[in-house]
C-alpha cells in the first residue's frame, strides 16, 4: 500500500483545499483544531501537516531550485530525516501530549483528576518557549483535546491568544463541542467528514482484504477508514456479530428470552460492543429499507427480518434504534445487564410481531 499524502485528503473538499493553499503559501495559522469521528484520519493529517512544516529535504530542494524555472518539490517528502523522525514519533521539535491514564476508581472526585490537567499544559508551554533543536518551527500536538479539564483549557487559551513565535498547535478531538468556545474560536477548524465508499473499498483492497469482507467492513465502518481496517482483520468482531444475530434477531419464542439473557449476563464486559453491534445491525436493516444497501447485505439474516427490511415502515427501525439508546442510558444508570438484555429482546420480538401481524 502506497504512503498516504496530503493530496489524498482532497476528497475532504474545501477544508483540505484551504489547508494545502495556506501551507504552500506560508500563510498557515498558529493553531488548528482537527475534528471528526474516530478513525477518520485526524492523526494521519496531523502527522502529514507536521512533516510538511518540518520537512528538511523539501526546504533544501526549494533552496537548490531557487531561480530555476522548475516546479517546487512535493512536500512532505516522507524520506528525509525530519519526516522519518516525525513519522516515528521522535522528532525533537515535536511536543506530543496525550491524556494520561489517571483514572483509579469510579468515584467522581477521582475522575476529576483524569485527563489533561493544567500542569500538563504548563509544561507544554514551557517547552514550546525554548529554542528549537533544528532551528525551524516547533509543533505542539494535543490528542484527545476534549480531555483537557477547564483549568487546562483556560491555561492553553492564554497561549492561543498570544501565540508563541514559530510554534504551531494541533488540537485533535472527536467531540469539538465539548471544548470551550473560546478555544475553538482561536483555532482554524479542520472538520473531517466520512470518506466515500470508493475510497474505503480501494484502501481495503490495497491491503489484501477479501472482497466479501471488504463489503461487510464497508457497511459497518460508517465512513471511518480506521474502523474499516480494524474490523476487517478482527475475527472476534465477526464472531460476536454472528452470535448477536443468532441470539437476538433469530429468537422466535418469548420463553427463550431467559435462556438468552442468562447466556449474556456473564458477558457484561462486552455490553458496549453488543449495543454498538445492535445499533449498526438495525441501521443496516433501515439502509436496506431505504434502498441504500443491497438486499444481499441481509443474506445471513432470518427470513422475517429480510421481509421486514423490504416492506416495514422506516419508523419501525427508528423505534428499535431508540430502544438501543435507552439501553445505553439504563446501563449508565447501573441497571443490571441481564435486565437490559431481556428488555431489548422483548422489544425486538414485539416490533417484529407488530409488523408481521
Describe it.
The chain is α/β, with parallel strands linked by helices. 54% of the residues lie in helices and 7% in strands. The protein has helices at 14-25, 42-54, 56-64, 81-88, 108-111, 118-128, 150-161, 181-185, 197-206, 211-221, 225-232, 235-249, 257-264, 271-289, 303-311, 314-332, 337-356, and strands at residues 31-35, 94-97, 138-142, 167-173, 188-191. A five-stranded parallel sheet has the order 2-3-4-1-5, with helices on both faces. Helix 7 links the parallel strand 3 and strand 4. The longest helix is centred in the C-terminal third of the chain and has 20 residues, at 337-356. It starts with 13 loop residues before the first helix and ends with a helix.
Give average pLDDT, whole number: 88
- Helical amount among residues, as a percent range? 40-55%
Helix/strand structural class: alpha/beta
Radius of gyration, in angstroms, nearest whole number: 25 Å
Order of helices and strands: HEHHHEHHEHEHEHHHHHHHHH
Runs in which pLDDT lies below 50 for 5 or more consecutive residues are 58-72, 102-112
Indicate the overall shape. Answer: elongated
Amino acid at each position: 500500500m502506497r504512503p498516504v499524502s496530503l493530496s489524498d485528503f482532497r476528497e475532504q473538499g474545501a477544508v483540505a483545499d484551504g489547508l494545502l493553499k495556506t501551507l504552500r503559501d506560508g500563510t498557515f495559522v498558529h493553531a488548528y483544531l482537527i475534528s471528526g469521528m474516530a478513525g477518520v484520519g485526524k492523526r494521519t493529517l496531523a502527522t502529514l501537516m507536521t512533516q510538511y512544516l518540518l520537512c528538511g529535504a523539501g526546504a533544501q530542494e526549494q533552496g537548490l531550485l531557487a531561480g530555476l524555472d522548475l516546479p517546487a518539490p512535493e512536500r512532505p517528502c516522507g524520506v528525509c530525516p525530519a519526516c522519518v523522525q516525525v513519522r516515528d514519533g521522535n522528532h525533537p521539535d515535536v511536543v506530543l501530549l496525550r491524556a494520561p491514564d489517571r483514572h483509579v476508581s469510579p468515584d467522581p472526585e477521582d475522575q476529576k483528576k483524569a485527563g489533561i490537567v493544567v500542569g500538563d499544559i504548563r509544561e507544554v508551554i514551557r517547552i514550546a518557549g525554548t529554542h528549537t533543536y533544528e532551528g525551524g518551527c516547533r509543533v505542539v500536538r494535543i490528542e484527545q483535546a476534549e480531555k483537557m479539564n477547564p483549568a487546562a483549557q483556560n491555561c492553553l487559551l492564554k497561549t492561543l491568544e498570544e501565540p508563541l513565535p514559530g510554534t504551531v498547535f494541533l488540537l485533535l478531538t472527536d467531540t469539538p463541542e465539548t471544548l470551550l468556545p473560546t478555544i475553538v474560536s482561536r483555532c482554524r477548524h479542520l472538520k473531517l467528514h466520512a470518506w466515500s465508499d470508493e475510497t474505503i473499498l480501494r484502501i481495503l483492497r490495497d491491503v489484501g482484504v477479501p472482497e466479501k469482507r471488504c463489503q461487510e467492513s464497508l457497511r459497518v465502518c460508517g465512513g471511518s477508514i480506521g474502523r474499516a481496517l480494524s474490523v476487517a482483520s478482527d475475527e472476534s468482531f465477526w464472531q460476536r456479530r454472528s452470535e448477536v444475530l443468532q441470539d437476538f434477531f433469530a429468537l422466535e419464542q418469548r420463553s427463550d428470552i431467559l435462556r438468552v439473557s442468562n447466556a449474556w449476563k456473564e458477558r457484561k464486559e462486552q455490553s458496549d460492543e453488543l449495543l454498538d453491534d445492535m445499533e449498526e445491525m438495525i441501521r443496516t436493516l433501515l439502509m436496506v429499507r431505504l434502498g441504500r444497501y443491497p438486499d444481499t447485505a441481509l443474506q445471513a439474516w432470518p427470513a422475517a427480518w429480510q421481509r421486514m427490511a423490504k416492506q416495514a415502515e422506516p419508523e419501525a427501525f427508528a423505534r428499535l434504534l431508540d430502544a438501543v439508546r435507552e439501553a445505553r442510558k439504563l446501563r449508565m444508570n447501573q441497571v443490571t445487564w441481564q435486565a437490559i438484555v431481556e428488555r431489548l429482546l422483548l422489544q425486538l420480538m414485539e416490533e417484529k410481531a407488530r409488523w408481521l401481524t
